[in-house]
Amino acid sequence: MEDASKRRRELEAAVLDKVGEVISAVRSAKRVDQVICALHSLAVLLFPLDYSSLLSGSIDQRYRDQVLSAKAPPEEERWEWWQAFYRGAAYPTLARVLLFDVASNWLACFPISARVHVYDVFFVSGLSSEVVQTLVPCLQKNASDGHDINYVLSNTERLLVHCLLENDGVLQMAREFCQSEDSISERTKPSVATLAQIVASIPDKARLRAPVSLSSHLFFKQITIQLLSLAEKRDEKVLDKVDFSNKSDMDDALQFVGETFSRICRRGSADVLLSEIAPRILRHVQSLLSSDFDSAVIDVFEADPGSQFWLKMIEAIKDVYAVERISEQLLHHLATEHASDVEAYWILWLLFHRTIRHQTSVRSMFVDKFVLWKTFPICCLRWILQFAVLECPPDANSLTKGHSIRGLVDTLQRLIAVWSKKEFVQSASMEQQTYVSAAVGLSLEKMSKEELDGTNDVMHLILQGVSCRLESPNHLVRKMASSVALVFSKVIDPKNPLYLDDSCSGDIIDWEFGLATPDKGNLDASDCPEKDVLKSKASILAPESDFNHTANRGISNNVKSKTKKLSEFKFVDPDEIIDPVTLNHEPVSDIDDDNASENSESSSDSSLQPYDLLDDDTDLKRKLSQLVDVVGALRKSDDADGVERALDVAENLVRASPDELRHVASDLVRTLVQVRCSDLAVEGEEESAEDKRQRALVALLVTCPFESLDTLNKLLYSPNVDISQRIMILDVMTDAAQELANAKTVKPKHRTGPLITSISESQPWFLPGSSGPPGATSWKEISETGTLLNWSSRYERELPSKSGQIKRGKTRRWSLRSSSVQENQMEWSHNKFPVYAAAFMLPAMQGFDKKRHGVDLLDRDFVVLGKLIYMLGVCMKCAAMHPEASALAPPLLDLLRSRYLNLRTSVQCLNDTMQT
Amino acid sequence: MSKRPTPDPVAVLRGHRASVMDASFHPSRPLLFTGSADGELRIWDTVQHRTVSSACVHSAAHGIICVASSPLIGANKVISQGRDGTVKCWDIEDGGLSRNPSVTIKTNTYHFCKLSLVKKPSAHAPQAEGHCYHDETEFRGAFDLESLDGSKEKAERGLTESSNVVGEDAHAEGPNYVAIAGEQSHEVEVWDLNSAERLVQLSQSSAGGSPNISTSERGMCMAVQAFLPAESQGSLNVLAGYEDGSMLWWDIRHPGVPVTSIKFHSEPVLSISIDESCRGGISGAADDKIVMYSLDHSLGSCVGKKEISLERPGISGTSIRPDGKIVATAGWDHRVRIYNYHKGNALAILKYHHATCNSVSHSSDSKLMASASEDRTVALWELYPPKS
């Protein structure tokens, strides 16, 4: 062992010496032949060279001899040199010289054969992984050291194309990972990921003028083909030997493949990648399925070595995003290639059956993302459900249910939760809705009634989702609802399907809902317009006929505008005799055309789509602003709306106490008492019409007591009102009496302060006084920047903010009622009631005991009597301590002592009073 | 298929304490001028939606009926018309209006007709092909050389003066005229903004050349619009709407005889707008229709193109967007309505205001629209954004 390493060190030293020699020879060379000779002397030690072709080049005789004299070492020695050269420090050093100095100074003079044999050979026949590492950084070099950078770059690009594409360098690289080399120390071996990154970055690093084959599309396509050929070649030999004997190296190669693929996806070329992968894997699965096997299909796949490649490749891709892109593209490709359900299932199984078990991210990708967030063709949805949710191989033409029901139930619950949301119906795109509805329907089909019963709220949510879809104006959305409802009903009771819609009468439901799914197979940029058309077809919102229509119109308008131009030349002729009458009509149509054509030119038709033109005039109903109008509106009992609006404004209008209030008060009171509020009652209204009526009456009694009381008292014992109205009248009077008694007036407090303020001696007379709220700072003079001839001086000071003042942002709020305002002003409670006490009480007391038609307070309407006594009591309380009270007390006592008021009524009155 | 819901205003500018009578955008900066019935002129920042400045420019008792600004009178000027018989021209300094108006015209008019600044076809306005044979310079020269009708000495003097003033004032370009219903409210007057002198009076008395039509035949002038059609060799044209629903078209080279007279409306014409190319316009009246018409200067004809009937009568303001795509009307029924200017079909009914709308106005970049209403608010709308 030690011997070997010693020998290796010696060898490396020898190689380095030789390289140093060559480099110095190149540097000191005067002629191109010298350079060729120097390079040849090294190349001959490393590579098997073909002399005859080299000699056919035009090398000077002297140097030709030198070249010929160089002895090629034996095969074995050469191999050792080669190893030492590429694995050691020698190669990067030489490559630098080759790529920069030789390339910019000499390479142009090289004969073709010489270039191939002594220059390119260092890269083409080298260790690919090392070659790539030296070449790619070169692509980003900027001009330096006087090298012709353009030439250096184009040369590098040429070499890259030559090495990687034409000589399958990427494949070689992958192979290099397989070959277990004891001599490679882990240190020098570049990490697989770095190398993959370098390879994938080539198209981005290449210049714009680089060869077309370095463009990302072609380049990635090429290296994908190379790497995939690995899979096929493995079938033959590599797999048998290497794969199973030495797992770790195999893993390295696959690691490289996986990393490269994921980098390609990251760089946005997943479609290129899959356009290669998908057909291959489809062919692979087809070939396995077509051969008749007795054993289970799973075993076939397990046993097949080719399948291992695919499985491990996906496992090697660690990047979740890349996996997602790959699976997405794979599904689309399979859909366009019309893979059967069975094939698709096995492809998915082959690629993902292990990762879906071990990696939650992959699982959630299939079960969540692909079902809820992305949209695929419906056939893809079936595959996804079959593979990820049902987890069992399908029949020939329908989904089959596996043993594990758990996954299905979970998925269905998640789907239903999203599907049933109203927001989803409103905001999700039509494609998304179709997709999720189909997912719901397909997974619902697989459920049984018992399983549905086992779930918590699925049934409820389904009904909710169906009902909110059925309200939709969109036919398609309604159809989704009816389809899901049909499936649901079939699950619940297979014999009695529920058809909500005439169209879906068949047994098989079209989950695509007649939508033409965009054909995403050819993803080239060139078919973008076509895709757009398909998309717009798919979106039902824009009817096709409209398109045709506008298109036709556009064409005809263009024609028209052309003809118009022609006609206009005639039009300008000044000598033409014009009949004004004809002209008055002609330009109109002319201009119409003109505008229309202008329209189609700028295609403003689409941009000027009208909004909802619905216009109702609810806000325009006449607002009642006059009391007379209020009275009028209240009288029209058939116009409930008007009555309501009148009640809305009545209180405010009365409180404003306009001049005409006194004249309309009695009318208003009468109508307010007689208006039928129960007709207007709205359940759960914040403020019922009854309340409004009462408050309006209270307001009337307060603002205009005498006139209103007059009418009210007349009504109280009138035969035309019923008990409830009488009670209401008494309630209103009670409230009004209380309000009058508590009337508040604000009076400013007289401010006492010294009338003459003495100025302290320390302060000059012209300074403003120091009085003010406590906390104010002293006065400061403001420095004036203006003219010196300034007679006035200005002073400022800071005042503390008032206690009630709130500073919020920069806005100062003055209107807040601050406490200081209340300090200065006093609220006086002024009892205004006693003045009106007699008007309140006496008429009410007068006729209580008379039995008239419909009025019988003492016997039948004892509740009214109770209210009356309560009202009188409140009135007395409000008038207490005032001289009016003593005048009113005797009649009230008379009433209470009256013989008509027997015990029964008294007790009931008391009870009543207590309650209120 | 459900239609799109009607959009809401992008901003509502509150702050006026009385009915907002008129709104006008600054021709280049993001500013909006609004005038209210209590005489307050406010300047708003249309980006921040804040008041930049506020000033009482006319007496509170009379109020403002019109504010106007136009690139033709200079970018830093705004004009306010009060019901106190004055028209004031203000300079916009940074942060607000000048303390005193740069020009005050005592027009002695106390009516409801909003004044009109001159509208000139802009170079980038949608032109009907083949018609544009006057380029800008030619038409300026023509204007300076060819003065008004020789019989009108006053007018001529005014014009020469005005051209002097134009020479001095580097900011102002073009004629600084303002058309306004006159002291005799059945007349239309054209005033020079720089000299504050009246150029010409357009009286309807001789309309149609028949002297037997009495002056009160058409009634008061209710709306005016002054414009400079490209074909008119730079002479000012005025379109005026009258109380009886008729409109007269004047070329002020011939103040005695109107170019044409038409009657689209049965009630007073309240608003006239001319599009950017000065080849067509729209009028709103107190009756229940909006009329779109085309103006042909060479024939002197005004022909109705499209008549839009309304559910509820009363259009107090109209505005054609500078790009000529849509028009907006301000209705007594609190609605702002949007129509396709070319086709005349309704595009939107904007319900935001809860009182009569007094005016609508479009910004010069066509992006914003402002509606002023009696409910003391100004609403800003962004509808059918123009393709940039």
Roughly how many Å is the radius of gyration of chain A? 50 Å
Q: Tally the helices of chain A: what do you get?
A: 42
Give the % helix of chain A: 55-70%
- Can you count the beta strands of chain A? 6
- Report the end-to-end length of chain B measured between terminal Cα atoms: 30 Å
In round numbers, the mean pLDDT of chain B is: 82
Structural class of chain A comes to mainly alpha
Give me the oligomer status: heterodimer
Instruction: Quickly count the helices of chain B.
Output: 2
Mean pLDDT of chain A: 73
Count of extended strands of chain B: 29
Strand content of chain B: 35-45%
Task: Give me the side-by-side strand order of the main sheet of chain A.
Answer: 1-6
Low-confidence stretches of chain B: 124-172, 207-214
Judged by helices, strands and strand pairing, the structural class of chain B is mainly beta
Q: What characteristic shape of chain B results from the CA principal axes?
A: globular
Pfam family, one (chain B): WD40
Protein name (chain B): Protein DECREASED SIZE EXCLUSION LIMIT 1
Keywords (chain B): Repeat, WD repeat
InterPro entries (chain B): WD40_repeat_CS, WD40_rpt
How would you portray this structure in words?
The complex is a heterodimer of chains A (916) and B (388). In chain A, a hairpin with a 2-residue loop joins strand 4 and strand 5. In chain A, the strands form 3 sheets. Chain A has a two-stranded antiparallel sheet. Chain A is an all-alpha fold. In chain A, helix 1 packs across helix 5, helix 13 (247-266) crosses helix 16 (305-316) and helix 39 (833-846) runs antiparallel to helix 40. Chain B starts with 10 loop residues before the first strand and ends in a 7-residue tail after the last strand. Mean pLDDT of chain B is 82; it is low at 124-172 and 207-214. Chain B is mainly beta and 388 residues long. Chain B: WD repeats lie at residues 13-54, 350-388. Chain B: Keywords: Repeat, WD repeat. Chain B: Pfam families: WD40. Chain B: This is Protein DECREASED SIZE EXCLUSION LIMIT 1.
